[in-house]
Amino acid sequence: MVNGGGGFAGHTDWRLPNINELRSIVEEQCYGPAINLAVFPNDPSSVVWSSSPYASYSNYAWIVYFHDGYANFNSPRDLNYAVRLVCGGE
Fold first, then answer.
1. pLDDT in tens, 41-84
2. Residue-wise DSSP of 11-36
3. How far is residue 74's CA from residue 54's CA, in Å, rounded to a whole number?
4. Which of 18, 29, 46, 63 makes the best surface tag, with the fewest CB within 10 Å?
5. In degrees rounded to 5, what are phi and psi of residue 47?
6. Which of 68, 69, 51 is nearest to 60 (CA)?
7. Phi-psi domain of 56 (left: phi exceeds 0; alpha: psi -120 through 50; beta: other)
8. Residues 6+ apart with CB under 8 A from 22
9. Is a pLDDT exceeding 80 seen at residue 2?
10. In the chain, what are the domain boundaries?
């Protein structure tokens, strides 16, 4: 959770979304990026981390590749991927 200074955009409860929250913004009918550009303008087709760990390997976590909306668990946590924060409780 991001909780320093005065926060950002009036909030101090920013966090990584879980895999279900992240997948909920994938637009299945869109490609390159697989996201609604009216809601998320200029969004890159990048890989984005979720807060959901992969149960079998503690050093892996779930990601969503917003180029095509594909979700995968085979991502070591030391890779340099983007994050998309949400605010509020889970």
1. 888 889 999 999 998 888 999 999 999 999 998 788 888 999 99
2. BS-EEPPPHHHHHTTB-TT--SS-B-
3. 8
4. 29
5. -85, 135
6. 51
7. alpha
8. 48, 50, 62, 64, 71, 84
9. no
10. 14-87
